[in-house]
């Protein structure tokens, strides 16, 4: 695998080519068709994964079978770091949203490598801390914000991650479907569609299929109550 792809993976960014070469020797890969489950919540945590192509969703299910999407990862993203250092079981399930190629490194191999490389171990700790902050923010949003607030929060995050500024505003080619956005917000597709339509009516955004333009970023931010 090209070292440039490894450099895009957050836990490996900033490493020297020599260090990346050592990691490259540990990488294995697998192909997953859309809808195939990579691992389920409770399975033994045996590897850390990263996406070479495609999209993977991380989700939890309740006793009645309802699905709650925690995150949707894309090319270059890393997932399942939670089992890296402490082992244990996967805290959520992972499923291919579309046909995907996923690289993985077994925990036993990676732990041996990072025990010999302080720079790699520090980078992993930073990424895990960042993901923990994101999870805490998501829990807070679901607990204390209403649907309108949560949708505004998600739009703001999407703008930061995927948007680019134009003369008209912040333009975003949405990386998620309406259904996926609804799952991330914790509501129905119809509700998210109504909220987006309301934002368009009020001149905050404009929409065209899978594209959203944030016309007024300040008004979008005012939609988000400070907690």
Automatic annotation (TrEMBL):
<dbReference type="InterPro" id="IPR000595">
    <property type="entry name" value="cNMP-bd_dom"/>
</dbReference>
<dbReference type="InterPro" id="IPR018490">
    <property type="entry name" value="cNMP-bd_dom_sf"/>
</dbReference>
<dbReference type="InterPro" id="IPR036388">
    <property type="entry name" value="WH-like_DNA-bd_sf"/>
</dbReference>
<dbReference type="Pfam" id="PF00027">
    <property type="entry name" value="cNMP_binding"/>
</dbReference>
<keyword id="KW-0805">Transcription regulation</keyword>
<feature type="domain" description="Cyclic nucleotide-binding">
    <location>
        <begin position="11"/>
        <end position="131"/>
    </location>
</feature>
<dbReference type="InterPro" id="IPR012318">
    <property type="entry name" value="HTH_CRP"/>
</dbReference>
<dbReference type="GO" id="GO:0003677">
    <property type="term" value="F:DNA binding"/>
</dbReference>
<feature type="domain" description="HTH crp-type">
    <location>
        <begin position="145"/>
        <end position="218"/>
    </location>
</feature>
<dbReference type="InterPro" id="IPR036390">
    <property type="entry name" value="WH_DNA-bd_sf"/>
</dbReference>
<dbReference type="Pfam" id="PF13545">
    <property type="entry name" value="HTH_Crp_2"/>
</dbReference>
<keyword id="KW-0238">DNA-binding</keyword>
<protein>
    <submittedName>
        <fullName>Crp/Fnr family transcriptional regulator</fullName>
    </submittedName>
</protein>
<dbReference type="GO" id="GO:0005829">
    <property type="term" value="C:cytosol"/>
</dbReference>
<dbReference type="GO" id="GO:0003700">
    <property type="term" value="F:DNA-binding transcription factor activity"/>
</dbReference>
<dbReference type="InterPro" id="IPR014710">
    <property type="entry name" value="RmlC-like_jellyroll"/>
</dbReference>
<dbReference type="InterPro" id="IPR050397">
    <property type="entry name" value="Env_Response_Regulators"/>
</dbReference>
<keyword id="KW-0804">Transcription</keyword>
